Amino acid sequence: MSGISKRGGSQMAIIGAGSVGSAIAFACLMRSVVSEILINDYDKKTCEGQVLDLQDAAFVSSTNVRIGTPKECGQSDIIVITAGARQRPGETRDELVQRNEDILRSVLDGMKPIKSTAILVLVANPVNILTCMAQKLSGLPLSQVIGTGTHLDSVRFRVAIKEKLKVSEMSVHGYIVGDHGDKQVAIWSSATVGGRPLIAFEEFQGVDLDETAKKVARKAYAIIDLKGATSFGIAAVVSDLALCITLNKLAVIPLSVYCERFDACMSFPVSLGSNGVERVVYPEMNEREIALIEESAKITRAACAKYTS
Ligand SMILES: NC(=O)C1=CN([C@@H]2O[C@H](COP(=O)(O)OP(=O)(O)OC[C@H]3O[C@@H](n4cnc5c(N)ncnc54)[C@H](O)[C@@H]3O)[C@@H](O)[C@H]2O)C=CC1
Ligand SMILES: CC(=O)C(=O)O
């Protein structure tokens, strides 16, 4: 049984009060996802400023916000890790690994012992590799350590489809899988709208699917070039998955988890509830899609081995 019996009694900790951490706190506050949010950052001044500012917004919410010590954060029901360096314009997510590995180790050490029923959510990049590290270092079962993976990329993909077909993004059943980065794979072959294969729609005839997928994969770079960081999309994503956890929704969303089929920590659709990941659901994929995922799994596996040895 999970420690979360009802949303009203649950607590979320957010480690890292920068652009992403504060946006996540704001989104979760506005949706009253949990009853209390704790925020921790080793930059105490920024942390205090963010908490005071968020407290001014809490009057429209039933959530309380305060600063939490690392040990208190380690006892939360949902622990979200955003602490880490962000990409500079043009930099890839993979290039952050060395800096963010060190930060992740110190964050996990500072929180230990972590509550045995907590769900640990990795947001800092490169998210698949950091999820793999956290699975090894946190002491929690694999089903309780997840990364936001390609949830955000899948949202971006659905919005791109929405613009072409004039249907709500919520009615597009299609996923970006594998890497939350340059090696991500769009699963066109089994994506559907209203039960009809996406690639059968007239609007997709003659469309360069690789180019459309590339634009989705480049969206983070476009935002970073324009405003220095992405924050609102990932904040919505984390509030969504936190609600899946607190309400035991078992919704199927693509997240970073250990995937036996590819023997690596990759992002695939999973059902998520109060106990964490209940099952991984592999979409139907064609040979080309599988080959691309296997190629990316090889790189992720090697990076995980390097950074957890
Ligand atoms: N998975 C996803 O879809 C997304 C991931 N990200 C990633 O999230 C991370 C954070 O991005 P931003 O918030 O824009 O960066 P930021 O620089 O605004 O904030 C990072 C915060 O982490 C804090 N921090 C660093 N080490 C710490 C430690 N040991 N303990 C506590 N706090 C610590 C810093 O003081 C800073 O306030 C980056 O790695 C970025 O690439 C960003 C957007 C989307
Ligand atoms: C920065 C990042 O990982 C994103 O917005 O997708």
Automatic annotation (TrEMBL):
Pfam families xref list: Ldh_1_C, Ldh_1_N
InterPro entries: L-lactate/malate_DH, Lactate/malate_DH_C, Lactate/malate_DH_N, Lactate_DH/Glyco_Ohase_4_C, NAD(P)-bd_dom_sf
Name the record gives this protein: L-lactate dehydrogenase
Entry similarity comment: Belongs to the LDH/MDH superfamily.
Transmembrane segments: 12-34
Keywords per UniProt: Membrane, NAD, Oxidoreductase, Transmembrane, Transmembrane helix
PANTHER family in alphabetical order: L-2-HYDROXYCARBOXYLATE DEHYDROGENASE (NAD(P)(+)), L-LACTATE DEHYDROGENASE
Chain sites annotated for binding NAD(+): G16, A17, G18, S19, V20, G21, D41, N100, V123, A124, N125
Annotated ranges, domain Lactate/malate dehydrogenase C-terminal: 150-303
Species whose genome carries this gene: Mortierella polycephala
Coiled-coil ranges (or none): none
Entry's Gene Ontology molecular function annotations: L-lactate dehydrogenase (NAD+) activity
Record-annotated active site: H180
Domain Lactate/malate dehydrogenase N-terminal: 12-147
UniProt-listed GO biological process terms: lactate metabolic process
Keyword Cytoplasm attributed: no
Listed PROSITE patterns: PROKAR_LIPOPROTEIN
